[in-house]
């Protein structure tokens, strides 16, 4: 249905977009760190982020990146394949 070079390009763009999204959105997920550290730190997100920075540094904010990639890649692949197939059928 699709030429192999088009599928290869889609896969490459999908991998780049999902990894870019996961890399930049993962440090913003302080909510789960707040739930885990409610007893040790203050009630706000900034106090939890500061405590997390002191204890684990910058790499601590990117823990779970590989799990986020494994979770996101199949879902985004299905969305991209469905979208492109429907667009080809409509045009």
Describe the protein.
The chain is 74% helix and 0% strand. The protein has 91 residues and is mostly helical. It has one domain. The longest helix is centred in the C-terminal third of the chain and has 26 residues, at 65-90. The model has no long low-confidence stretch (mean pLDDT 76).
How do the strands and helices of this protein lay out in sequence?
Elements: H1 4-25, H2 30-36, H3 45-56, H4 65-90
Terminus-to-terminus distance: 15 Å
Radius of gyration in whole Å, from Cα?
Answer: 19 Å
Uncertain spans: none
Number of domains: 1
Average pLDDT level = 76
Proportion in β-strands: under 5%
Order of helices and strands: HHHH
How many helices does DSSP assign? 4
- The coarse overall form would be elongated
Largest sheet: none
Helix % is: over 70%
Structural class: mainly alpha
- The number of distinct β-strands equals 0
Notable characteristics:
91 residues, mainly alpha, elongated
In short:
The protein is built from 4 helices and no strands. With 91 residues, it is an all-alpha fold.
């Amino acid at each position: 249905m699709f030429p192999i070079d088009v599928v290869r390009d889609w896969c490459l763009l999908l991998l780049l977009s999902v990894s870019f999204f996961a890399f930049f959105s993962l440090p913003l997920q302080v909510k789960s760190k707040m739930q885990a550290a409610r007893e040790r730190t203050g009630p706000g997100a900034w106090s939890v982020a500061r405590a997390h920075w002191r204890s684990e540094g910058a790499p601590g904010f990117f823990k779970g990146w590989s799990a986020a990639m494994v979770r996101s890649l199949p879902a985004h692949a299905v969305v991209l394949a469905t979208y492109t197939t429907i667009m080809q059928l409509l045009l």
